[in-house]
Amino acid sequence: xxxxxIDVHHHHFPPxxxxxxxxxxxxxxxxxxxxxxxxxxAALEAMDGNGIAKAYLSIAAQNVWFGDAKESRRLSRxxxxxxxxxxxxxxxxxxxxxxxxxxxxxxxxEEIRYAFDVLGADGVGLVTSYDGVYPGDKRFAPVFxxxxxxxxxxxxxxxxxxxCRNLVPEVTPAMMEYPVxxxxxxxxxxxxxxxxxxxxxxxxxxxxxxxxxxxAHRIANQVNVRPQLKPTVPNGVFHELKKLYYEVNNAANPxxxxxxxxxxxxxxxxxxxDNPYVKPAHTIEGLQSLGLDPRDLLAIERDNALxxxxx
Length: 311
Known about the structure:
By secondary structure, the protein is of the alpha/beta class. The chain has helices spanning 15-20, 22-26, 29-37, 40-48, 69-89, 105-119, 141-149, 173-191, 194-197, 212-220, 222-225, 237-243, 254-261, 280-288, 294-310; strands at residues 5-11, 52-58, 94-99, 123-127, 153-157, 202-205, 245-247, 269-270.
């Protein structure tokens, strides 16, 4: 098997982190077994069996913020040290998206310094909202300004908005709320002016951008309905949306991929597995079923990521 794929959506679960947040995982029992089954050996087995040469590690939707700044700083450092050691133990196989203790601004700025200057992280990993606060909030501006100064890669993983949990109890949050929260986060960064103010951040959004491709024109029309928003998007809404990167897990199907492809150029689409929650074969087989030109398929699975991380 050719080991060529680069996976930008691959989760890791340091044992001490799992123990610290065990009760939160237990409350979502269907996910807990997958968390417990994760080991570095299992991750490498999944990679080797699916032609994944390198995977960028991030913490999943639970992330490290649970309302206590001191504990979030501890969990961030724990996870970042663990992922970095794993990358050193297996050279070339793992990259690191460092966790930050947002909404703790000062803690996040310190962890950015440590992650990039000491650990040599490849980027940072955030979630789409924190206690109902979205990333465009002015309280987070100093953090994004520092990430912009560093020309950082920022991987944004969805979570579920606290106000929207259990609205449709028959459908799990991951299936319905995660794509919507991704779109809320993009809208927040767009109309707060963060995208325009921080043009050197390279954002990656999961799952094909959630429901954004279907709503992009509707969202863009806000500048006509509310002209006061125009200064936040001086280069236009679609200028900002088209320069973002979109990971294709759960969008590697005809409706999802078609919508995404009609929004962004092929260069902005990246391969992701969502391992261990989703088997890598799910995305691989989905992409193969789309009838893509081999050059486009290789761009998604490898070349676009190579270009992104070489910038």
